[in-house]
């Protein structure tokens, strides 16, 4: 017996826009051959399926294995907003072991103690404990001095810093984006400038500190323009988005639907279209689920009192496949957004189908229809704003580290 | 004063088609004739309330109405209580501690508790926009919104419309200027929808920080300058500064606010000579409105608004319980 052969699948190969029929050979935990099979190996028939790198979900709020499994997510960067906050080496070490062996959690270290935005946490110790990045959590760090020192420290330690981009002073108690819908519903709202101000400041500090900033969610046209210009200048930054901001606008708040209560809040239709354009032109590097399962105690509340967040792990792939079907991006580009780029940011040896990479693979039936149903989700909670939406694309099989799970 | 219009047969769709809604959650979504229907029904209660000692009609006898107020209120609570009692219902007032309303399940639990007590109508005031809508999904009986956050206050808009209609004889074609804290005012939202639906030309006035986005989509004209908005106004409606909803400074001081947006004699002279002055109360005298204008019974309809409030709420309670009471045509 010599490893496993994956035969006849449509394989997503690095740099290729469309999948190509190719055999793969996996030995141990790694991809041994691409394009060739080993006659002595086990056989997995992948005929009719797309074979893609396992999705690396950059910035989830819960380790939710059933949901990740359903969604084809083989690794996830866990946000430090946990109870207790991941601001010391012990919690990082524990979180890093949580999903193994079939699922890997990459905990992100809290940038500040208890995510208070003021006192720097023990980032180097947490790096030694397994943290692959640092995050400000759901909150923006208001003190620019703290932020600059933090960025310099992260740059020294060669760790990416994940930032949330909402200027807290301007945002106030806003739960919606200013506009007709917020006014009609009488919801506290703030303009999209909340995001651009935050990005502008952090870009200035990033240029000074040399830190790798990852803007976890950029959701406005003006914010994306800033990112685009900064990248053009050669600043080492990256940015992400969730499907909610690509497929929903602030009209989804109608009827006080708390499943659409997100942070940052849903934007205007113009901003939504700008986000899709930014995915297409390469400004956006990552699409993540922002998986944040919330039970009824957090969501069955008046809109402004409800907790922000959505369960997104299960729907991430199916929703983003729409970007391919609608001709915005190629299948190859989709998996750069879902796997290759997140792997680069975390510096893990996965996220692409190449010789020597970890054999984290998913087998996708791209046309399989199903319906998102908040009552039947595998996730810890069914708080999806896409409830009852018909979608296409199911993960049929997952290989993690060379083993089918 | 013009004599009030009376409901004429055939003016509204028959039976429940005149008001086919289970709840009264807001003005948004109501058809013009549905608003007119409530106003016309309220007229009979104005007459009853002015009729002398026996201000009572027992059509709601045996029914239980719960006033669940999650937010402080005196006049609206009292108005709903009097309205229910004058119709013969058993009225229970429930003041819910502010601290408990922030806890999620408490609100749903409260709704389910109220439902289990088999109330026949529930009147709710809550500090969060959409809270009344949420509760209405959990109970079997009609729910009346007595103000939810900065969203809607439908009975206030209805009583304002009734006051205007009785004083001016019509609403269609009038110029109504609403001035003050538009951003935080559920009264302003409900009134903008109600008055434009009924054909009035509505102007809203506020400093930029208190003017919500997208206001033009309500079909109103927005002004930052009160003086510029007043000429031609048939009605000047002043709003209370809602300091409790403001995080941080929205205006430099009450004194400066009155300087720019307070209604005094000089400003009122810019409106039509017979312009009606309104205020939903409670008033901050010397901040939004000068005392002598508020107290001028010829110009000010402020106490009349309170009176119309009882009549409108009686109409709403009557209409919304007709189905449960088996009134002919309302099954």
From TrEMBL, chain A:
Q: Please name the source species.
A: Sphingorhabdus pulchriflava
Q: Per the UniProt entry, what is one GO biological process? A: purine nucleobase catabolic process
The beginning of the lineage is: Bacteria, Pseudomonadati, Pseudomonadota, Alphaproteobacteria, Sphingomonadales
Name any one Pfam family assigned in the record.
Amidohydro_1
Which keywords has UniProt assigned to this entry?
A: Pyrimidine biosynthesis
- Domain (Amidohydrolase-related) spans 126-405
Query: Entry's CDD domains?
Result: DHOase_IIa
* One Gene Ontology molecular-function label: dihydroorotase activity
* Name the record gives this protein: Dihydroorotase
From TrEMBL, chain B:
Q: Which residues form the Aspartate/ornithine carbamoyltransferase carbamoyl-P binding domain?
A: 22-165
Q: Which segments constitute the Aspartate/ornithine carbamoyltransferase Asp/Orn-binding domain?
A: 173-318
UniProt KW keywords: Pyrimidine biosynthesis, Transferase
Residues binding carbamoyl phosphate, per UniProt: 75-76, 125, 153, 156, 281-282
Q: Which InterPro entries match?
A: Asp/Orn_carbamoyltranf_P-bd, Asp/Orn_carbamoylTrfase, Asp/Orn_carbamoylTrfase_sf, Asp_carbamoyltransf, Asp_carbamoyltransf_Asp/Orn-bd
Record has Zinc as a keyword: no
Q: What is its EC number?
A: 2.1.3.2
Q: Kind of enzyme, top EC level? A: transferase
Binding residues annotated for L-aspartate, in chain numbering: 103, 186, 240
A Pfam family of the record is OTCace_N
What function does this protein fulfil?
Reversibly catalyzes the transfer of the carbamoyl group from carbamoyl phosphate (CP) to the N(epsilon) atom of ornithine (ORN) to produce L-citrulline.
Question: What is the protein name given in its UniProt record?
Answer: Aspartate carbamoyltransferase
Q: Which organism is this protein's natural source?
A: Sphingorhabdus pulchriflava
